[in-house]
Amino acid sequence: MKYILYSILLTTSISFSQELTKERANGLAGLPLKCLQQEYPNKLSQLLADETEIANPKTLHPAFYGCFDWHSSVHGHWSLVYLLKHFPDLDKREEVINKLKINLSKENIAQEIAYLSKKHNKSYERTYGWAWLLKLQLELDTYNKPFAKELANNLRPLSDLIAERYIEFLPKLNYALRVGTHSNTAFGMSFAWDYALYSGNIPLQTSIRVNALRLFKDDSDCPFEWEPSGTDFLSPCMEEVGIMQRILPKLDFIKWIRNFAPSLFNKSYTVEVGKVSDRSDGHLVHLDGLNFSRAWNFYRLAKFYPKRLGHLKPLADKHFKHSLPAIVDGNYAGEHWLASFALHAFEEKGK
What we know:
- The chain is mostly helical.
- 60% of the residues lie in helices and 0% in strands.
- It has helices at 2-12, 22-35, 57-60, 70-86, 93-103, 106-117, 128-141, 146-169, 185-199, 202-216, 236-247, 250-260, 286-304, 306-309, 313-323, 332-335, 338-350.
- Helix 13 packs antiparallel against helix 15.
- The two termini are 31 Å apart.
- Mean pLDDT is 94; it is low at 1-16.
């Protein structure tokens, strides 16, 4: 089946419409659905206090043990909730709902809270996994179905803990992490901001706004030519644009981005896609994620500033088209996480 989907995507890429059709939705849903309860291979990234903490992934993380690592499991759950919401007749709807109910039970979330509440685990998944957890919470909160409301209520205590962690941590961060991988500060703030705004969490909004301004307001002339590094899956420059677009009023943002990324206003601006040499390599395949990261930020700029930055949409399409066919190529290194990145690009395109 995966090779059929691969052929479909390849043949449609010539006249790529950027539409998330039901056929595509079913194909993308198949990726997290396949790994949501697949325990191995697994990367725990665990700090052990003593030998009593040695356990299998499912024991340690009964909610988020699948899809290779904790954060990929979290955004795999988000992908499925997002697809269920937008495609009520998804082919494997009942199977998806059943797995979500099993994983996101009240008891399993309590165990996740217990793990993160240990003193030596306060920085666990900071801030990449935190950001996706809040995005999952937002998706469940805005899904008007009884099972989704139940799961939202189950998850909320963990989301509340993560929100508290953000508020505690951000003022301590003296220097932003301007990298293209998990610890990127700007990306970690963006999804958290979206959740804080929707949920009316004023302390979280204030913390993100104050600290984003402190860390990024005076930045200028971001070195786009330094991107990408060899294993980037986020664009450091564009993710900074993403958080500043969220927190600044429109006119203030335009003034800021003209100093930060003046080249984006050039109607002929272009940048080459990230090219993956070996998609079976779990680090090299990150560059497909970079293409989606650039795409979702270009789409967002083009959508909100069509007169000034609308010319970035074809560039977003170019990046999206390059990597979308590859995420169903049968390599678990990319399959366990890339559907989420593709779906967020679809999400930003559709706004």
